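Dear H.,

Thanks for agreeing to be a second pair of eyes. The structure we're designing against is below in token form, covering all 85 positions.
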């Protein structure tokens, strides 16, 4: 992660309170990831990262800053293998 953020901004977002997200990240050893909580926002719905029942969907989303902030690309990560519990 330290090498990646020399070239781009990188963040991981989840629809949980930030304290819960930080605890989860610590248990996984994610020491350098910037964590963002989307709880109490419409971000997941706006970027199609949740279904009609409010369940989170794994997504990768890219924003490019050109004359302001713009959504550039999103892709579903449904076929990516999940981490073991």
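And this is the sequence the design step returned. I haven't edited it by hand at all.
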């Amino acid at each position: 992660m330290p090498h990646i953020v020399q070239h781009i901004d990188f963040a991981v977002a989840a629809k949980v309170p930030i304290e819960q997200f930080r605890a989860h990240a610590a248990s996984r050893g994610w020491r350098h990831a910037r964590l963002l909580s989307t709880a109490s926002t419409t971000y997941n719905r706006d970027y199609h990262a949740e279904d009609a029942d409010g369940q989170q969907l794994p997504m990768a989303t890219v924003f490019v800053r050109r004359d302001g902030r713009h959504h550039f690309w999103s892709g579903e990560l449904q076929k990516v293998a999940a981490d073991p519990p």
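Two observations from my side: The mean pLDDT is 86. The beta strands are 11-14, 34-37, 59-65, 69-76.

Warmly,
E.
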